[in-house]
Amino acid sequence: MWWRSQLISMTNHLWTVPRIRPNLLRSQVPTIMNAMFFKPLNAPALLIAVLLITSSDIHAESDSDVPGIELQTCELLVPGTPLSTVGECGWLEVAENPEEPDGRQIRVRVARIPARGRVAEPDPLIFFAGGPGQSATESWPIVAGALRKVNENRDILLVDQRGTGQSNPLKCPQIELDEALALDWDELGRSTQQCLDSLDGDPRYYTTTIAMHDIDAAREALGYETVNLYGGSYGTRAAQVYLRLYPERVRSVVLDGVVPQTLALGTEHAKKLDQAIYRVLAACDEDVLCGESFPDTTGKLIGLIRDLDQNPVDVTVQHPTTGEPFDLTFNREVLSTSLRFLTYSADTQAMLPLLIHEAATEQRFDRLASQMLIAATGLQQSISQGMEMSVMCSEDYPLYPPEPEPNEYLLGDIMEKAVGIQCGIWPRGPVPDNFHEPVGGDVPVLLLSGELDPVTPPEYADQVAVHFTSSRHLVAPGQGHIATTRGCMGKIVSEFVIEGSADDLETDCMSNLQPTPFFISLTGPTP
C-alpha cells in the first residue's frame, strides 16, 4: 500500500508525458512512465515522487575550465529511453546547511549545453525540472528538441536540484512490487521512517529556497550575469522562488504547467483530476463516433467507482519488468491511480472512454492495471522521493487543513491521508515567511497551460499572470500537462526567449493544436 499511495500523491506534478503512436496500444502502454511531475500516494505507493534518473559521464579530450567549476564532456540520459544530449558536466560544492558554511559539504551536479551557433548570447536558459524530485540533467533531453532554437545562440544551464539526480540524491530504498502491493495504510509510517533512516543527508535542508541559492552559485561560478528561466510544473515554483530572490539577474521567464505560490501542492489534486476527466468524457459524448461506441462513459465511471468501493476485483497482469504473470487487487485506489496517469497527456486521454467502457461492460481491468504498474515501476526507480517529501512537508503540508473534508472525487482523500502520515514523521526545514505570497514584477513572463491539464489547469496560470506587468498566458487547445513539447509551442517559447518579450509572438499556429482523436479500438483512432 505504501507504494501505491505514493503513486497517487506522486502524480502531483509530472513532467512531460511522451507521445505514443496509436497503433502501438497493447495491454500495457508504457507511455506515461516517461512523463510526469507529481506527488506521492500513501503507504501503498511510492513516496512523493516524480520522473527521470541519472546522467552518466563520458570523459572526452575537449575538457574546459570555468571559474569555480571544472567541466568535462558528458552525455545526459533519460533512463529507459533513447533520448540523450551531449553537454559539459562538473560539480559545485555547497554547504548542506547554509547556516553552517564550514560544516558538511555536498556536491551539486552542474551541466551546460553550449550554444551551437557561432555567436553566443551572454544570458543562458536555466531549466528547472518538475516533481518535486526530478533531475534537470535527466529531464532536459525530453524538451531539448522543442527548444533547439533557443540553444542555437544560448547556453542551456542545468543544475540537478539538491536531493535529485546526482546532487546527493535523497532516494528511498526500492520495494519489490509484490511486497509493496501487500502493504497497507498502517505500514506507511514504518516505511516512511525506514526511508528517512536510510538517507545520506539532513532532509531539512533540501527545500526549494535553499536549492535556489545553489542554482545562483552555479550561475556565478560559470560567469553569467543575467539568465532566462524555464520551469515546468513544480519547476515553475522553483523559477518563481529564484525570481523573488534574484530579480536583477532575470531577463525573461517561461512557466509551463503553472503552480501558484499560494497553492499547497496536493490540496486540489482530486478536484482538478475530476475536472479534467469529466471534460474528456463529455467531449466523447459530443463526438459522434466516440459517443456511439461508448455511450454514457461518465455514468459507467461513476458506477465503476461505486462497485470497486464495495467489491474489489482480483486481476492478473504481466509484471512490468519480468514479464511474468502478476496478481493484484484492483480497487478504487488502483482505478484512480491508473486514470490519473492516463489523464496527463492528450494522447492517453484519448484512451479513457475505451478503457472505462471495457472495464465497466467486460470487467476487463488488466489494461488499466498495467498502466499503473508500468508507470509506478519507472517512477519508483527515477524519483528522489526523500527530496519530494522534504519540499512538500516543509512548504505545503503546513497549509493543509487539519482534517480533510469528505468528498466524492475519484481520488477522495487519499492524498491528504498519505501526506498527513508522511509529514507527521518527516523533518521540516526552514521556509521564509513570504514563501506563499505571490511573486510579481516587470520581467517579461510567458505562461503556458494545457486546456485539459489535470494537475496545473489554466486557471492557475491566470492567478500568477496578474502579478506581472508584462505577461502573456497561452492555453494549448486540447492538451494536457506541459505544453512546450506539443505542436508549435516550442517554437513560440523559443521566439519569446530570443526576443525577451511576448508582445509580438506569432501564435496563429496554435489553431492547429487539437485533442488526439479518441481510440475506438486498441489499434487507435479511426482514420
Question: What is the gist of this entry?
Answer:
The chain is an alpha/beta fold. The chain folds into two domains: 2-52 and 266-383, no CATH class; 67-170 and 203-264 and 434-512, Alpha/Beta hydrolase fold, catalytic domain (Rossmann fold, 3-Layer(aba) Sandwich), CATH 3.40.50.
Describe this structure in words.
- The protein is α/β, with parallel strands linked by helices and 527 residues long.
- The chain has two domains: 2-52 and 266-383, no CATH class; 67-170 and 203-264 and 434-512, Alpha/Beta hydrolase fold, catalytic domain (Rossmann fold), CATH 3.40.50.
- Helices cover 35% and strands 16% of the residues.
- The chain contains 18 helices and 15 strands.
- The chain has helices at 2-10, 136-144, 150-153, 177-182, 188-198, 208-221, 234-245, 269-286, 288-293, 297-310, 332-342, 346-349, 352-362, 366-382, 385-396, 414-423, 458-465, 489-499; strands spanning 56-57, 64-66, 69-77, 84-95, 105-113, 125-128, 156-159, 227-232, 250-256, 313-318, 325-330, 445-450, 471-476, 519-521, 524-525.
- The strands form three sheets. Strands 1, 2, 3, 4, 5, 6, 7, 8, 9, 12 and 13 form an eleven-stranded mixed β-sheet that branches. The protein has a two-stranded antiparallel ribbon with strand order 10-11.
- Strand 10 and strand 11 (325-330) form a beta hairpin.
- Helix 6 packs across helix 7 and helix 10 packs across helix 13 (352-362).
- The two termini are 41 Å apart.
- The model is unreliable at 1-5, 7-11 and 13-66 (pLDDT under 50).
